[in-house]
Amino acid sequence: MSGGAARSRPLRRMIGLRLGIGLLTLFLISVLVFLAVALLPGDIAQQILGQSATPETVAAFRRELGLDQPLPQRYLGWILGILQGDFGNSLANGRPVADLLAARLGNTLFLAGYAAAIAVPLSVLLGLLAALWRGSWFDRGVNVVSLSAISFPEFFIAYILMFWLSIRLGWFPSMADPGAAPSLAEMLGRAFLPAVTLVLVVTAHMMRMTRAAVVNVLGAPYVAMARLKGASRWRIVTRHALPNALAPIINVIALNIAWLITGVVIVEVVFVYPGLGQLMVDSVTNRDMPVVQACALIFAAVYILLNITADVLAIATNPRLLHPR
Amino acid sequence: MLLDIRDLKIEARAEAGWTPILHGVDLAVDRGEVVGLIGESGAGKSTLGLAAMGYAAPGLRFAGGSVRFDGTDLLALPEARRAGFRGRRIAYVAQSAAASFNPAWRLIEQFCEGPAIHRTASRAEAEAFARQLYAQMSLPEPDRFGLRFPHQVSGGQLQRAMVAMAMACRPDLIVFDEPTTALDVTTQIGVLAAIRQAVEGFGAAAIYITHDLAVVAQMADRIKVMRHGREVEEAPTRQMMAAPREDYTRSLWAVREFRRPARELPGGAPLIRVAGVTAGYGAKTVLEDVDFAVPKGATVAVVGESGSGKSTTARVITGLLPPQAGRVELDGQALPPRLADRSRDQLRMVQMIYQMADTALNPRQTIRQILSRPLAFYLGLTGRAREERLHQLMDQIELEPGRFLDRRPSELSGGQKQRIGIARALAADPRFIICDEVTSALDQLVAEGILRLLSRLQDEQGLSYMFITHDIETVRAIADEVVVMRHGRVMDRGPRAQVMDPPRHDYTRQLLASVPQPDPDWLTRRIAEGVR
């Protein structure tokens, strides 16, 4: 079909454009991150070596770190290294940052994926059911429960869960280090408590957006038409309303997944979970700047990528854009 | 009897409790029979039509009576059982196909949904039937037509696709709810032919709801006139057309006879001249070399189907859309093309009244605030002078100042809102008013009141009107001169009698021939003549 290529062209152009803007944003963020770290007060070499170090040792260490070079040159060296996969070496232990990150990023993605795999289907389903039975006890109940969950601080939920499910009942470990576990099942078991905590935190937001977007569409004439064609209410909600309500839902899901990757420091600390957030907090305490910079850049990249994905998906679900006249 | 509605009462949720909107109505439809429901908006026609499917719109409830379909009382059934009738035995065709098709689904998917839900046909059978119906309804490329999304299809085609969709399960009864009201006359006639063919070809019974007498005369075997949720009278079509019994029915019949009295125009140079205007949006040209003039104190009607460039012409004159070529003159002086470059006085001279009074008035403001704004902005009126002028304006539009000035638009009826729209235009003390389909959204009686009001104001104040409309009857009622447009070009222009009586241009002839006539045989003749 000759029209096919022509039709997908606007979408492809749009994806290309968004990716380009995303790369530009990432570049700007890398400059900001670099400058922010470089402009921190105090001398990193001095702080690492301690007050007792001789000026000669400090100067030598500064040279070794490249701190004696002008800012633009240092930035260029850093960013070119990253483009080749070299994030530099940790100041704390001298290991390559990339190696440190790899394990931690894997853990973080595992936990985020775990929580998202539960939270996204759950909140969309709850949102659909709440829209289907809007005004009923179920609708109100789901609202109250999910809002309560989001209103408590994460650490509070985390400690409550830990107290009951780990200490009292002993079902799940309170220390969650999946990296040491031999099998997937074991990993899932060990990360269960942090994952459930995160699910409780993100579900309300996605559920309420699903409900609101679907309810908004339920007033449309084509929904009345579907009823007059004899469609059941569940069919109307899932087949007629949901496809037209996807754009806002996708956006909220993307934001929440981004948060699951970048914003879970507290939960990681509570459960002593070796994720990226903890690494970043530790590195800030240790003034391990290469690691801090790398973490910040990865977090930014995750946000940008997920938002681009959400934009593209939102557009791809709109037939007017996907199939122009 | 296929459908037998007895003493049906329906109530609407109101601020305090429920208020009745159908007060015990009967409706009977035999197999293969078409019953027309006619009346103003708010008469309860649609509510009654939907009740025939055992359906009450959100905010409404059944309060009494019975809806027997083929012997079963739908109101006594649980909702799930009622759903088994809908789409399968009783189908629905809505007013706006554009809003009633799901924008996310291809047309054929929506066609096949009914047969899939009710398991009346396999997917392949349903698709084959769809293609057959698309072909019968003269839709383009019937084999591939269903692959399109609703937004890829024109309004008239979409409406025909909806008629086809209603036939998907071969229902015994179809409810047509104003199926051609949103269409141009030239498009309407094709859809009417398609509906006639579908109903006759499949022997289905139908309830045909409309406020257009001429249309219902073509479609119905029997007509029921409704008003305020009650039946006014019911009779076979020919009898009803020839000799309506009730005064109200006669008043509906009579509306079409309003003609403003002949009068002498002051003459002299034209007030507005549109000279060689070419305009468009981006690379798309919508107007090409449009040329016409509006004499002082005269009404020029600009007619044509949607997409002909009528409203774009208005946008050029008001300065909202600067033309690519040509110019607009007011009193012999060229107006700056851009709105921002026009002086306050130039802005004051050209005012506009909109089709949708609902959306053209700020819902958060009172009538006083709405009308005070132009008085302060254009004329600098304040305090007592402004208050006096407000009262004067309200008197001119025949609304009591004391009762209405402090209300908000939502507390007014459609006709009253349109009168406020007129007052707002008058407040600027203009010389030229563009009326953009100002009566299209109104019932006939109300619309007639608006036309009379505009005519009177014109006589009193020597205003010039440009009347954008697709309604030929409105043109006959008020126009001194006519401009016929199509595809962004002027087809014909001149004094009304020269342009229209008899039609001088081929396209004008086609336009006039598409206007339904109260004669019940009109559509049959037109179909016989091969009109699509």
UniProtKB/TrEMBL annotation, chain A:
Keyword Transmembrane appears in the UniProt entry:
yes
Task: Tell me the Gene3D superfamilies matching this sequence.
Answer: MetI-like (1.10.3720.10)
Family (UniProt): Belongs to the binding-protein-dependent transport system permease family.
Transmembrane region(s): 21-40, 109-132, 144-167, 187-207, 245-271, 291-316
Could you cite one Gene Ontology molecular function of this protein?
Answer: dipeptide transmembrane transporter activity
This protein's species is: Paracoccus siganidrum
- CDD domains according to UniProt: TM_PBP2 (cd06261)
Q: What Pfam families does the record tag this protein with? A: BPD_transp_1, BPD_transp_1_N
Which cellular component terms (GO) are annotated to the entry?
plasma membrane
Q: Which InterPro entries match?
A: BPD_transp_1_N, MetI-like, MetI-like_sf
Q: How does it sit in the membrane?
A: Multi-pass membrane protein
> Which superkingdom?
Bacteria
Q: Which UniProt keywords apply?
A: Cell membrane, Membrane, Transmembrane, Transmembrane helix, Transport
Keyword field contains Metal-binding = no
Subcellular location(s) per record: Cell membrane
Q: Which PROSITE patterns match?
A: ABC_TM1
Q: What is its main location?
A: membrane
Report what the protein is called: ABC transporter permease
Ranges for domain ABC transmembrane type-1 come to 105-310
From TrEMBL, chain B:
Keywords, sorted A to Z:
ATP-binding, Cell membrane, Membrane, Nucleotide-binding, Transport
* Pfam families in UniProt: ABC_tran (PF00005), oligo_HPY (PF08352)
A biological-process GO annotation = peptide transport
Per the record, the similarity remark reads: Belongs to the ABC transporter superfamily.
- Subcellular localization: Cell inner membrane
Give the SMART domains listed for this entry.
AAA (SM00382)
Quote a single Gene Ontology cellular component term.
plasma membrane
ABC transporter domain span: 5-253, 272-512
Under the heading PANTHER family, the entry gives:
DIPEPTIDE TRANSPORT ATP-BINDING PROTEIN DPPD, OLIGOPEPTIDE TRANSPORT ATP-BINDING PROTEIN APPD
* Protein species of origin: Paracoccus siganidrum
Specify the protein name.
ABC transporter ATP-binding protein
User: So which domain of life are we looking at?
Assistant: Bacteria
Per the record, membrane topology reads: Peripheral membrane protein
Q: Which Gene3D superfamilies match?
A: P-loop containing nucleotide triphosphate hydrolases
Provide the GO MF annotations for this entry.
ATP binding; ATP hydrolysis activity
